[in-house]
Structures are given as structure tokens and as C-alpha cells.
Write a structure and sequence with these properties.
Distance between the termini: 96 Å
Mean pLDDT: 85
Strand content: under 5%
Number of helices: 13
CATH architecture of the largest domain: Orthogonal Bundle
CATH superfamily of the largest domain: Tetracycline Repressor, domain 2
CATH class of the largest domain: Mainly Alpha
Order of helices and strands: HHHHHHHHHHHHH
Shape: flat
Low-confidence stretches: none
Largest sheet: none
Radius of gyration: 26 Å
Number of domains: 2
Helix content: over 70%
Length: 235
């Protein structure tokens, strides 16, 4: 082969970029990506290895089992909760701070819709990891006159509400076989308000209901505070 024929192939060749070294953090981040894209039930060591471009057996040098991977992913989520910050600063007004807290937590849930079950386990560690996130809302409630136990109940209730609604959205993303217009009309003929409800499923997205639910929760807490203040010995 002459130099002319060989030259371009030699000089134009670009060696493949070296793959980043394998380590525990990289494995866990890849596992979280897989869970986010495909769901927790689809995670396997073989699929995780393929995602990283290695044989599954190579992973066991860094993580002893699939369960260890799941526990590590849960810790990644706790680390994210520890970094969680509302889009706006705490106002010191308990109602607004509860809304800010709820919306920021909802955003975190939506970044990992298929990992929501990991948010719902080890809740003591989850709250502890996000201490700097939850403290302002708790402090605003106590400053407004809520007893510490009532403030804790308020924050837990709002957090559970957000998590429950996001779990429902993640589990039921579409209606399997929506009712046809004539079917809805038949419902409306005998039960007009239920017919209106059925129509609302397409017209009013879940986000509207979530905000409405938060408003109802906060209104109930407002009434609870007013009742406590009006009671003998109340503030």
C-alpha cells in the first residue's frame, strides 16, 4: 500500500474517548437515570451494566447487590432533598411558606416520578436530610401561634398530600379507554353532576386539583389556629 493511500486513514483517525472510570457514585447515578426513565421494577444489574457499558459482574466490585444499589439511589434522593430550596425565599408568613414548601417538594417529586416509592420510605431520614428545607415553614407556623406538635402535623400533612397526589399521577398517566360522547351523555341524563365530573377529567388537569387541595388544607389549618386562639387560655 502506498503512502498516499495509507496517509488519510492514519492521520484522520480519532481514537475513542476513554470511558470515565467506574465507581460507586457513577453506578448509582446511572441507576437513578434508569429508574427515572423506565421505573424501579425495570432496574436490573444486567441493564445497569449495559447502561454503563460494562458487564454486570463488574458492578459487584462497587455494590454488593441490587438492593445495595436501591439503597444507594435512595441516599442520592436524600442528598437531593438536603439541597432542596424553594424557588422563593421564606416569607415568615405560615400560609405562604407552606405553599412554597409544597410546590418545591412537588418539583422534586416530578424530577423522579418513577422513584416516588423511595421518597415514601425511611421518612425519618428523608425529613432529617431536608432539615434546612422544612425548618422555615415549621418556624413560621410556630411563630403564628401553632403548638409545635400542630406545626409538625401541618407540615407532615402537606408533605403526604403532595407525595400521594404525585404517586397517583405517576401511576395513572392516561385513561385506558376514555368514555365516548354518547356514553357521557347517558351518564348526564340520569346524574348530571356526575356527568359534569366525568367531563372535567379531560378539561381540568390534575395540577388544578392539587392547588385546590393545598388551598383546602391551608384553609383548614387557618380555622384550626383560629379555634385554638379563641379557646380559653388560647393566644
Amino acid at each position: 500500500m502506498d503512502a498516499y493511500a495509507a496517509g488519510p486513514w492514519v492521520t484522520d483517525h480519532v481514537p475513542p474517548r476513554p470511558r470515565p472510570p467506574l465507581d460507586r457514585r457513577r453506578i448509582l447515578e446511572a441507576a437513578l437515570r434508569l429508574i427515572d426513565e423506565h421505573g424501579l421494577g425495570e432496574l436490573s444489574m444486567r441493564r445497569l451494566g449495559a447502561e454503563l457499558g460494562v458487564q454486570a459482574m463488574s458492578l459487584y466490585r462497587y455494590v454488593p447487590s441490587k438492593q445495595a444499589v436501591i439503597e444507594g439511589v435512595r441516599q442520592l434522593i436524600f442528598d437531593e432533598l438536603a439541597r432542596l430550596r424553594p424557588a422563593q425565599a421564606a416569607t415568615g408568613h405560615w400560609e405562604e411558606d407552606l405553599f412554597v414548601m409544597a410546590r418545591a417538594f412537588r418539583d422534586a417529586c416530578r424530577r423522579h416520578p418513577h422513584a416516588l416509592s423511595l421518597f415514601a420510605t425511611d421518612v425519618d431520614r428523608a425529613y432529617a436530610a431536608a432539615a434546612r428545607f422544612y425548618e422555615p415553614a415549621l418556624a413560621a407556623l410556630v411563630a403564628a401561634g401553632f403548638a409545635p406538635d400542630d406545626a409538625v402535623d401541618a407540615v407532615r400533612t402537606v408533605t403526604r398530600y403532595v407525595l400521594a397526589t404525585e404517586l397517583l399521577v405517576a401511576a395513572v398517566t392516561t385513561m385506558r379507554a376514555p368514555l365516548e360522547e354518547d356514553e357521557i351523555g347517558a351518564v348526564e341524563a340520569d346524574h348530571p353532576l356526575v356527568g359534569h365530573l366525568v367531563r372535567s377529567l379531560a378539561d381540568r388537569p390534575p395540577d388544578i386539583l392539587e392547588e385546590t387541595g393545598l388551598q383546602v388544607l391551608v384553609a383548614g389549618l387557618r380555622d384550626r389556629l383560629a379555634t385554638a386562639a379563641a379557646a380559653p387560655g388560647g393566644t
